[in-house]
Design a protein that fits this description.
Largest sheet: 9 strands, mixed
Low-confidence stretches: 384-390, 478-489
Number of helices: 9
Order of helices and strands: EEEHHHEEEEEEEEHEHHEEEEEHEHEEHE
Strand order of the largest sheet: 5-8-10-11-12-14-13-4-9
Helix content: 10-25%
Structural class: alpha+beta
Amino acid sequence: MRAYITEDQRVHITFSIQSNSANNTNANLIYTYVNGVLSGLVKYSGNIQDSSSESPSYLIFDSTYGDIDLYSVRVYSVYSSDRIVLNNYAADLPTVAERLAIAENNDALNSNDEISLTKVQSLGNIPYIVFTGGLATGDKKGNILDSEGNPIKVLNDKGEYVNQTGGTGTIRALPTGKKDFRYMPCYFVDPEHPDRNFGTANAPVEAVVYAQGTSSLAYPVKNLRVRFMNKKDKYSLLPAIPIEGLDSMDAATQEKALAEQEKWTKLPKVALFTLKADYMDSSLAHNTGTGNALAAIYDSVNIKSVAQEQYPDKTICNNVVGCPVIAFWRTGDSIGTETYIGRYNFDTDKAEHSLFGFEPDEDGTYGRLVDANNNYITGFQGTVDESKKWDEDNLASKTYYTAPRDDAVWTGNSAAAFKTYVTKTGPLYEKVEGPGTIQCWEFLNNAADLCGFRIDWHEGVDDMDIWTAAFESRYPEYEDQVGSDKRAF
């Protein structure tokens, strides 16, 4: 291990080694803690039952840049839990006051060394969200569907037929896939920003929860997408970015800093959020925090997105904004059955285009800029994947172009000709009342020949399967992901 330590700094380092015994679910792992905080994880190979070595060697502490004072070394014959590591760190602190502060600030575990909702509530400084329910529902809107996949209609108290919503069956579970829709009313509490709270323990807000992500679906802890079911349930609940050194600023600088902080309280209210687990990302909450910091830096040097320049009076993000949150799931019918499910980043969702200054067009799918008169700016965009669900009326109602120019009209006249062109020649374009759609892509399968640029996108195939297996559209983000605009890339 190599560490960079500032002068006169005392650091407490712990290695906790999990053996590979049959009843150990976290076998062959070495955890590294720095000052009681889990800071690293390494998987080791071999078939050993403890951390001893058949050919032991010396532990050497050395530095070519300065002197090292080694205060103590402890070796245990058992694996150390989070609580044990923290207690050891506290025991080595020089004063009783420091030890008590560590104990009080970290008193979040119950007798089973699990994070407890009641303990988190008692600390009074940690944002948390509690999900209830977990029964399956038919779609992301919480509709209960019949055997043919259509919403079941029921009479409401006004004598109107409306879609029946809620959960079905008896099995409660957390979602494991993008189509695993779960009816999970929830409530959120931010003790330091109570104006951002929504719902209560006795009256949670109706929501549908389903897994979010692609590669992350393989991890045991999933990202969670939270969609509120009722139109009135929209929130702008993100805490303001803390201001460091506010008291030392002059009046003008302080006023600007407070104005920057205040703008985050005016984000457009939305009904869709994502809880990012960052399960394999060591940055954890710093991932979103870095985005928040970069946004503040861009603003301080007057670097703005097109939307921010277009609408100077609006609060518009140029990044996903969020905050850390602790999540629990009430597995039973009553308060008190909450189980800890993870630490997440509670983020705005990139599918909420209004946060980035975009307005939906006529079919409500794309985010586009409008001018000062609220008119869409004219442009071209790549065709949607109409070759798979072809509507012959498109040929009569639309004009397609072989390039984003008015003089490049496509002369084809059939669905077969359309499919042949886009799969063998290149993209077709259509003219829209808006700029060309912003496109951002992610490699879906790093091993694919297309991702390695070893083949052309249309080589050896007759449709878009090779593309959709290799790349994933990331922005614009649509909840119902289709092959839209993939050829235009």
